[in-house]
Design brief:
About 45% of the residues lie in helices and about 20% in strands. By secondary structure, the protein is α/β, with parallel strands linked by helices. The strands form two sheets. The chain has a five-stranded mixed β-sheet, with helices on both faces. A five-stranded mixed β-sheet has the order 7-6-8-5-9.
Length: about 270
């Protein structure tokens, strides 16, 4: 069905046409206008927002088509889409929600692509994480640790798996839970905790190649792959530019940008 915003636009134009002589918008003309909208609305998982901003800027420069990003935790964005949020594309931080949207017929099955795989790191500001990373996690009940919400964010679920591996007494941990991975990162950045399990991409976006001794990349065998999938959302009036943008994400240029931002491709 047509979204509420589209219905309101159509209603407004029809009323306007009856009031102003010479303005002749029919219902079908309004719908046709909406079908050729130029802006692309994208729901994107918090960890990938900065990288997608760069990709969106490049795409806008090439095509002149505006890309508008709505960022949040994967779980919350998924709930918004299920409840009718009129996004064109969903960049999830996991495979689960993208698959569920396809099953619910809210996303195009052939559009489901793996655009990146996330890397989890332990960040210990002011410490040599490469040397003391494992010992810190073995003794993590002594520290305050920031992680993303395991129920909403795939990075949080991965962090929980890592903590369970190193500490059997989970209830004794002093965890500071961020709604998404960006919030968990900010808890560490503002010195509210002793350390945090954050995404490699968040750290590189902030510090680049400096302070790399403060992070320790968690062995991939300790957590499920953070495969990040994007899907084209099903709409009554599909935005053809959205499908084109997904093709751009799979280009060599885009993959190089994603890789340099701290993600594994494939």
């Amino acid at each position: 069905m047509c979204s509420n915003s589209h219905k309101m636009t159509i209603k407004f134009l029809l009323i306007l046409s009856s009031l102003i002589p010479g303005l002749n918008y029919s219902n079908s003309q309004c719908i046709e206008k909406l079908k050729h909208q130029k802006s692309i609305y994208i729901a994107v998982a918090a960890n990938f927002t900065k990288t997608l901003e760069k990709l969106a800027t490049n795409y806008q420069c090439m095509t002149g088509i505006k890309v508008k990003l709505i960022s949040g935790s994967t779980g919350k964005l998924y709930a918004q889409i299920v409840n009718g949020a009129p996004y064109d594309i969903f960049f999830s931080a996991d495979a689960k929600r993208a698959k569920l949207l396809v099953e619910k017929k809210l996303a195009e099955p052939d559009s489901n692509i793996l655009y990146a795989s996330g890397k989890l790191v332990l960040w210990l500001p002011g410490r040599d994480a490469k040397t003391m990373g494992e010992s810190f996690l073995h003794q993590c009940s002594k520290y305050r640790i920031a992680i993303a919400n395991p129920k909403l964010a795939p990075y949080g679920f991965a962090a929980e798996q890592v903590l369970n591996h190193y500490n059997s007494e989970k209830n004794n941990l002093d965890l500071i839970i961020g709604e998404n991975i960006n919030q968990a990162f900010n808890y560490v950045f503002t010195n509210n905790v002793d350390g945090g399990l954050v995404s490699m991409s968040s750290f590189l976006q902030k510090y680049g190649s400096t302070r790399l001794n403060e992070i320790w990349e968690i062995p991939k065998k300790l957590y499920a792959q953070i495969g990040q999938y994007a899907v084209l959302l099903t709409k009554e009036y599909p935005n053809s530019s959205a499908a084109d943008f997904l093709k751009y994400i799979q280009s060599t240029e885009s993959k190089q940008i994603i890789s340099s931002a701290g993600y594994k491709i494939g």
